[in-house]
Every structure is written in structure tokens, then in C-alpha cells.
Design brief:
alpha+beta, 4-stranded antiparallel sheet
């Protein structure tokens, strides 16, 4: 079985793309166009190189974008997928309820003569997956923040942004990815431990 598995969804005209390259084993050495050996020393076995693209943007080659990837263990990646599959719709719905409360408060017109109330706010969800920090924020005022909110994943001082709808769609393939990893020799030990919220 191939020691490298690619799990990806390409970008469309209204969503970003996500590509995860899973290295179950260390990759074999590669050669460039001049037949020179390209070192793979910086690619650890048991890791995932995760990247996102902007709306409508195609992926570039792995080598060209490698230093922009967020690198995590396969266990952390599987934990993220499992969380998205099991809990994301509920988390997102809860956040939308709170945003709607803010909008409802903001839409109340003058309560008394010459007194009006105007507010805007945001709702934030944060969670640790071992060393990976997930941050997601939605705003009540779409005029000030017109762009779709993104998931921000961070490990140490490196972060990427991902389209949450695309990542959720990818999470629905959790069982298929786990099956491929098992065939490639990966032993799944369950979700990684979560740091306190």
C-alpha cells in the first residue's frame, strides 16, 4: 500500500479548497527535472501536511507550498476530522443562535424618544486538539465583516485558515480515510487528548 495518502477537496467559485497529505511512512527520495535527488529529510513519518486555498484557487505542487503547510500528527488530523463529523453542525447551529440574538437586539428601533440602541458583536469557538488550536469566529454585522468566517488552525507560531463547510464535508470521509490508513499500516489509537478549554 502507498505510504502517502492525499485527502483533498478542490476550491470552487464560492469555497476554498483543502488538501491533506498524510505520510504513513517516510516518502521515498524524489528527483528533480535534472535527475538530482531532492531531500525528504524534513518529512516525518506519521505526519499530515495540511493546507488551504482561497476561493477558486487551485493547489500548487506539494514542494512549492510545503513551507506553508500546517504539520501535525496523523492522530491530531483524525481527531479534527472526528470532531467536525460528530460535533460541527451542533457547534455551528449554537453559534448561529447567539448571532441571531445579537441581530435581534440590534434591530430594535428606538426604545424611547431620542434613545436608540445599536450593538454588534461576535461569537467565538475555541478548542485544543493536543498541540493544535482551533479558533472560529462569527460576527453579527455582515456589513462590517462581509467575508465568510474561516476555521483558523494553529500549531506553535504557524497557522492556516480553512473553509469550515469544506472541512466538514471532508470529515464525512473519516471512515474511508481511516480504512486507507489501516491498510497502509497505521494503528489508530483513538482521538488525541484534549487540553482543558
Amino acid at each position: 500500500m502507498e505510504p502517502i495518502i492525499t485527502h483533498s477537496f478542490g476550491a470552487s467559485h464560492n469555497s476554498g479548497g483543502i488538501r491533506a497529505t498524510l505520510f504513513v511512512q517516510a516518502p521515498q527520495e524524489e528527483r528533480d527535472e535534472n535527475n538530482n535527488i531532492i531531500s525528504n529529510d524534513d518529512i516525518e513519518p506519521g505526519t499530515v501536511h495540511l493546507e488551504g486555498t482561497d476561493i477558486g484557487q487551485a493547489f500548487v505542487s506539494f514542494r512549492e507550498s510545503q513551507h506553508e503547510h500546517l504539520v501535525m500528527t496523523i492522530g491530531v488530523y483524525l481527531s479534527l476530522l472526528q470532531f467536525m463529523k460528530k460535533h460541527w453542525l451542533q457547534v455551528s447551529a449554537c453559534m448561529d443562535k447567539r448571532i441571531n440574538i445579537l441581530k435581534k437586539i440590534n434591530n430594535q428601533k428606538k426604545s424611547r424618544k431620542n434613545i436608540s440602541f445599536n450593538t454588534q458583536g461576535s461569537v467565538t469557538y475555541q478548542r485544543w486538539f493536543d498541540v493544535c488550536f482551533l479558533h472560529y469566529q462569527k460576527y453579527s454585522n455582515n456589513d462590517i465583516y462581509p467575508l465568510q468566517p474561516f476555521l483558523h488552525l494553529q500549531i506553535l507560531n504557524k497557522s492556516i485558515k480553512l473553509d469550515p463547510d469544506v472541512f466538514y464535508a471532508m470529515s464525512l470521509e473519516f471512515d474511508k480515510i481511516l480504512d486507507k490508513l489501516t491498510q497502509a499500516g497505521y494503528k489508530y489509537e483513538g482521538p488525541v487528548s484534549f487540553l482543558p478549554q
